[in-house]
Design a protein that fits this description.
The protein is mostly helical. The protein is 33% helix and 3% strand. It contains 4 helices and 2 strands; from the N terminus they run ααββαα. α2 packs across α4 and α3 crosses α4. The two termini are 29 Å apart.
Length: 133
């Protein structure tokens, strides 16, 4: 019940301006930096972000279980609902419980949890892309 109420509330909100995004939710090449474009490629490719946060709204209204108990000494929390990444730069801290203070922390979190093996430049590019959402 709480999840459906949160989804209804989220559907009432409009997204903040994202001047570098086109109607399809992807970067307009002439407006984006090289780093942001590389980050977009990572988002939809190697980093697998779009599997839970597809464009143009960058959410899928589904529940996902990251099985965090593998990495932390806490009780399993089970599946959590993905939320939109549109406007993400304006809403720290991140994740359902605020455990990541910056976008860089969040990228590193998922790099570890999903075993993505992103290098430092890829992490920087991914965060640069997310700032444009």
């Amino acid at each position: 019940v709480q999840v459906s109420h949160m989804a209804q509330f989220q559907n009432m909100l409009d997204f903040p301006p994202a001047p570098k995004l086109g109607d399809d939710g992807k970067l307009v090449a002439g407006l984006a930096t090289e780093s942001e474009m590389r980050g977009q490629d990572l988002f939809f490719g190697k980093a697998r972000c779009a599997s839970c946060h597809p464009a143009p709204f960058y959410l899928d209204h589904q529940m996902h279980d990251l099985k965090l108990e593998r990495f932390v000494n806490e009780a399993p929390i089970g599946p959590v609902k993905s939320f939109t990444l549109r406007g993400i730069k304006d809403s720290p801290p991140y994740l359902h419980d605020g455990r990541c203070l910056t976008l860089e922390d969040t990228v590193e979190f998922f790099n570890i949890v999903l075993q993505l093996r992103l290098n430092p430049q890829e992490k920087q590019d991914l965060a640069a892309f997310m700032r444009q959402l």
